[in-house]
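Reopening: structure tokens for the zinc ion complex, inputs below.
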Amino acid sequence: MPEILDQARTQVLENGVGLDEAGVLAVLNLPDEDVPAALQLAHEVRMRWCGPEVEVEGIVSLKTGGCPEDCHFCSQSGLFTSPVRSVWLDIPSLVEAAKQTAATGATEFCIVAAVRGPDARLMKQMREGVAAIKAEVDIQVAASLGMLSKEQVDELVEMGVHRYNHNLETCRSYFPNVVTTHSWEERWETLRMVRESGMEVCCGGILGLGETVEQRAEFAAQLAELDPHEVPLNFLNPRPGTPLGDRPVVEGKDALRAIAAFRLAMPRTILRYAGGREITLGDLGTRDGLLGGINAVIVGNYLTTLGRPATDDLALLDDLKMPVKALSATL
Amino acid sequence: MTELVEPTTTWCDRCGEDATAGAHPGCATARELEPPRFCARCRRRMKVQVLPVGWSAVCVEHGETRG
Ligand code: SF4
Ligand SMILES: [Zn+2]
Ligand SMILES: [Zn+2]
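Re-run output (same inputs, fresh job):
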């Protein structure tokens, strides 16, 4: 057993204290033959500190494309020659999307908009949309609308949005290589306000943007410092027309190392599979991750790309004897 | 006598390039996990809305496709 896993067994599994940056780096650098042991330990940590339930979520894009920001991985930036066109979802379709999500047994429905931050039109659409969902669908509503002002944070709380997603995307030292139109610190400031408001903080990122293994460890440590309620973990799905469109996808083994390492850094967080897992991990790898620290999934389609059918994921959870978290357990 | 039939598919609905010249294996694989982006009949970029279940794509000239 590698020393770092011995250390993690005592520190993380028994005492619930996450690994620091050096510890995460040691896990990320484990040789292939030790990855199964790291995943096994991460799974035990998840079972001990989070339990067997899996949180299921659906997401939808309320406003797609035409974003003024330049996140180099994103097909929705209006600054690249991506084929994604700008489009708004109407309220009846939004409610329908929430119903589709609730029908899978999901407890979370996240409304996402491709913007730097919300304007008055988007806030109005949110107000009407969230009210319409709450009137018709039994599901918790989360939102992801970019950078917020204090007033907008308060408005979202008042609407009944219970969790806010704002990804740091990558570590602080690598962020300027990925985004130049706003800073990591500006993102951090929104997260700070969300935390203060009492909304749950959802913050993760994307692996495979060209960051080094050291920077991956740095990112895990920075997330652990933020201590979000939820961490969505994406793997780059290179999008045509974006500056990162020709990057290779993350190797399955490296994705699994990262899953174990992020879990060992954050024993209590909801660690969610988000975009890119189908391509990076496939069916077998998806299963390995759920047995290696992941305890939440996005089911169905993503914002501009498609996922595998929700029924496949639900069948897998059933097979793994992992119950879907019920709404009553989240209230 | 040869009957002239307008080809129904001319453009690759993923990359927007000529689809009659040869197969686009990369695009075909990618399309399993992506909605179409270009109208296969006129090459216009479509307005695409992805929903948790399914998607819809609208070409201003040729109307809506769903999947
Ligand atoms: S802010 Fe969001 S939608 Fe806009 S380019 Fe960045 S990741 Fe894409
Ligand atoms: Zn093509
Ligand atoms: Zn057309």
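The mean pLDDT of chain B is 90. Residues 25-31 of chain B form the longest helix (7 residues). Marking as resolved unless the reporter disagrees.
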